[in-house]
Amino acid sequence: MDRDQQAIGWTKIELASRVAQDLEDGWFVNLGIGLPTLVADVIPEGREIILHSENGLLGLGPKPEPGEEDMDLVNAGKEPITLKPGGCFFSQSESFAMIRGGHLDAAILGAFQVSMYGDLASWKLPNAPLGRVGGAMDLTVGSKRVFLCMQHTSKGLPKIVEECSYPLTAPRCVDRIYTNLGVINVTDDGLVVQELAPGVTFEHMQEHTAAPLKIHTTSEWQAETLNKHD
Known about the structure:
230 residues; ten-stranded mixed sheet; 5 helices
């Protein structure tokens, strides 16, 4: 995180909690590698969210307590996890059948870049010899909603841009962007700020975003955007 952003905005766990607030009871949700995995630790009490990992798991719980890790039980990022009662294991082919069959209500992914049109770049940095081709290319197409959970900048450079300069994972697939600075909806009218994190002004967010932002305050419009894929 940039030095001038350390005193404002959400911490990583607060960011994950903010994402979790928007997950509805009964949803099946995939958690991508990295920051999105923190969502498993902060599901709101009393809300049943069934978490999916593309390596063949359904019903993920929070991370295990120190010393309780079982390295035969890991998520797609090879991090130790727990499994809730009723959780299950299955083959990776069955896991991708779930994804490609449209059975996931949302996918929460990370990103290297995202454009103002919702284009996602998440698998390869320009100078890297090899990319990390994984489930994201299927998840962006097969999930009903695609939410990004990420830091707003990387090494001082904006990750939200007018056009992606990195190789694309998928075009026009992102519905909502959650960062340490706030929440942004991707709409036909551009990037619309829904919420600013504590201490963050619209001007500060715009300064750290390489694409134009707007503000919309109509709650009905926000709800319509969130549920447009139902």
